[in-house]
Amino acid sequence: GMQGANAAFDSLLLTLYTPNGIYVFSHDGELGVTKTGVTTTQLGHAIFITGARNCKAWNESLESILHQLNSSHCQFLAFLGFDHPAISEVTSRISDRPLALAFAGVPLADYSAPERGLCLKKLILSVCHELNMDSPRSSLILAPDHCKGGEVICRSAQLRWRPTSARWFCQFMNIKFDE
To answer: For 136, which DSSP code?
Structure first.
């Protein structure tokens, strides 16, 4: 059955941060859901989606990951290119820390995961406001039946390389499907 049937939320938005922009999907409660061992009860599940093994090209792996999302019951909601005005609004700081090759010069690349998560949350709220909507529950989820006044949560992940398995992946963490 669907993992999200007893979820502590009504809709789960996944925000995938990549070198070419930000993709937003409404998750189906099934694709890539994994347990996180003994911490699952306390911290929640993870959603783990990978590109092809031994494919070092991030853009090819991203296409594979997007194909998996689009071929599932997940719903594509938005793509925000880095030229979107809301991005510069939430990323107004400058840093000189070294960046990974794939993310060189890409906004948010040198932020820590918690900092990036906060910026992406602000970004989603900013885009909702731009669309004259009050919250994610009424704008980014385009199909009204996805969210009937219920709770919406948003989790973000960066496209990352895992040397041990020689593949690109994204992992969304701390999702409590059943409470």
So the answer is: G
